[in-house]
């Protein structure tokens, strides 16, 4: 176990790093998984080939595109939590209904970390990701779709203007203190 790893809450938990494309979900998710010595699930790898082509073509996904993706990710996350006690996933989870679907998949044991930043910063990051299927032109549709977590949701918002390791440490502190 890495020296900075500390246990998260005693019950099994899924940690879902969420937000729009380019916010740093994969970077923070991988750092958290390393710190927690647990599996990391990259949500993008659960998209169907059709959904990836749709996004590559500049078309935003619909709920009908997202439900099967969320179900595949939710099942894999639930399996990882059962096996390891904790798992981390990177997933946009833009709407409360999507978060509820993931929360149900893991038996109600999830914590959400929303990564937030300005549209300008996000756009700059997206333009510097050559080869990624998600074009910068879809950022505005994601920002329009994003529903900020409500007070009753097990969530925290971190602004991504700090280094990834600082964000990791803030997320770990939040998780260690109950994550709500």
TrEMBL record:
Single Gene Ontology BP annotation: D-gluconate metabolic process
Keywords assigned: ATP-binding, Gluconate utilization, Kinase, Nucleotide-binding, Transferase
Molecular function as annotated in GO: ATP binding; gluconokinase activity
GO CC annotation: cytoplasm
Reaction it catalyzes: D-gluconate + ATP = 6-phospho-D-gluconate + ADP + H(+)
Database matches in InterPro entries: P-loop_NTPase, Shikimate/glucono_kinase, Therm_gnt_kin
Metabolic or biological pathway, per its Swiss-Prot or TrEMBL entry: Carbohydrate acid metabolism
EC number: 2.7.1.12
Pfam families, per database record: SKI
The family this protein is said to belong to: Belongs to the gluconokinase GntK/GntV family.
PANTHER family on file: GLUCONOKINASE-RELATED
Protein known as: Gluconokinase
Species in which this protein is naturally found: Sphingobium ummariense RL-3
């Amino acid at each position: 176990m890495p020296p900075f790893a500390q246990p998260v809450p005693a019950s099994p938990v899924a940690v879902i790093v969420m937000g729009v494309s380019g916010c740093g979900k994969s970077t923070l998710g991988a750092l958290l998984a390393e710190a927690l010595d647990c599996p990391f699930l990259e949500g993008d790898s659960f998209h169907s080939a059709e959904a990836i082509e749709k996004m590559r073509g500049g078309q935003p996904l619909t709920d009908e595109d997202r439900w099967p993706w969320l179900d595949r990710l939710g099942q894999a996350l639930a399996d990882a939590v059962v096996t390891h006690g904790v798992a981390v996933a990177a997933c946009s989870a833009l709407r409360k209904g999507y978060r509820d679907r993931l929360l149900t998949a893991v038996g109600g044991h999830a914590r959400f970390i929303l990564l937030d930043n300005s549209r300008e910063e996000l756009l700059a990051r997206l333009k510097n990701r050559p080869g990624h299927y998600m074009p910068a032109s879809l950022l505005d549709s994601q920002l329009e779709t994003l529903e900020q977590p409500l007070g009753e949701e097990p969530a925290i918002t971190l602004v991504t203007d700090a280094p990834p390791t600082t964000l990791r440490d803030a997320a770990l502190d939040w998780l260690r203190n109950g994550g709500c």
